[in-house]
Design goal:
With 139 residues, this protein is an alpha+beta fold. The chain contains 4 helices and 7 strands; from the N terminus they run E-E-E-E-H-E-H-H-E-H-E. The chain has 2 domains: 65 residues; 66 residues, Ribosomal Protein L30, Chain: A. Helix 2 crosses helix 3.
Length: 139
Amino acid sequence: MEELVVESVRYSAPCADCGAQLECWGVHGLVGGSLRWDVESVCPACGQATAACGQDLPARLRDRLLADNGPTTLHVTAPSAARVIVMRVLRAELGVGLTEAKAVADQVLTGAYSGTLPEVEYLARKLRAAGADAVATRP
């Protein structure tokens, strides 16, 4: 079983019920081969508690995670031998067409592709399973 990969962020937001500042906790993780996220909040003024979760990471939570934790970069060694593998994995995992897969593959192979730690580790694992030497690294 592969290691669990998790990133989290704590932030404040206004309560929809009373306007006071909520304490919010957001988590993004690679769990059992799937990407998952969740957000929980509790209002100290009115007691309103909420929880939300899903698979497709909301842009606002992604932006907060990247701002708080910094980006993780995907590195592939022996890029000339891995180009076809990288494009095939990107098309399958990102659901993109050939043109976009080529553009993203260029980013991956030049070390310019980055994202949250769980996102990048997910792709690194898929690439390794397909035969490419890939690793997720923090600068």
